[in-house]
Amino acid sequence: PIQQYPDSAALVHQHGGNAISFPCLEIRAINEEINRAVSILGEMDDVLFTSANAVRVLTEVLKKQSASSLNELLSGHRVACVRRRTATALKQHNVRVDILPVEESQAGLIKAYQQEGLPSSLLFFRAEKGGNRLPEMMVKRGVALHLARIYRAVCPEGDSGEIKERLKQGEVDA
Fold first, then answer.
1. Nearest to 49, CA basis, from 88, 11, 102, 18
2. Which residues, other chains included, contact 67 with Cβ-Cβ below 8 Å and sequence gap of 6+?
3. Which of its termini does the chain have fewer beta carbons within 10 Å around, N or C?
4. Residue 144: helix, strand or coil by DSSP?
5. C-alpha distances in Å from residue 38, one per residue of 33, 56, 171
6. What's the average pLDDT block by block, 10 residues per block, for the chain (174 residues)?
7. Residue 70 · residue 49 · CB < 8 Å
8. pLDDT of 27
9. Strand arrangement of the beta sheet that strand 144-154 belongs to
10. Is 97 buried (19+), middle (13-18) or exposed (0-12) by CB count in 10 A?
11. Contact (CB, 8 A) for 45 and 78
12. CB-based contact 45:117 (threshold 8 Å)
């Protein structure tokens, strides 16, 4: 995604390469869904983030709305995430991560929840499209689940003519 270009470019530069920006995805917030999720947060025991994008989108919208910080918003809730990168993003906002699976996948999180105990209710912050194994498992086990589809990945608008020409001229290696 376009929002991750600076980090990716830094890695390329560290290894002696020259990064060329050609984003194929852009992450866009779904504000109505964020507002709905925030309004029911008080009714939820646990909060789950499946990606660092979900953390970033939520914090950006909260900031634009001059609302509570992410740390304040999640205070009093058990917080789970699927990947270490997501946990790092949460920790950058002083959010304590209570459940982080060893195996970074929805299957790994299911195992972690089986060890830590299932919540009675779960607010699941995720992309508009994603896997359903974890939500289905939670519902089957009696967890009141709210899927908060807070962002979507779209093709960014822009002119790709320059990059196409550079590819045609053989100026791009990968």
1. 88
2. 38, 73
3. C
4. strand
5. 9, 15, 47
6. 59 73 77 94 94 93 84 93 94 96 89 93 93 88 94 78 74 71
7. no
8. 82
9. 26-29, 144-154, 121-127, 46-49, 78-81
10. middle
11. yes
12. no
Which secondary structure element, helix H or strand E, spans residue 53, and what is its range? Answer: helix 52-64
Contacts by residues 154-161 (CB-CB < 8 Å, ≥ 24 positions apart): 154/25, 154/26, 154/28, 155/24, 155/25, 155/26, 156/2, 156/23, 156/24, 156/25, 156/26, 158/23, 160/22
**DSSP state at residue 99:** B
* Cα distance between residue 38 and residue 31, in whole Å: 10
Cβ 137 vs Cβ 118: under 8 Å: no
Task: Tell me what pLDDT residue 126 has.
Answer: 93
Q: How far apart are alpha carbons 171 and 95 in whole angstroms?
A: 44
Strand, coil or helix: 22: coil
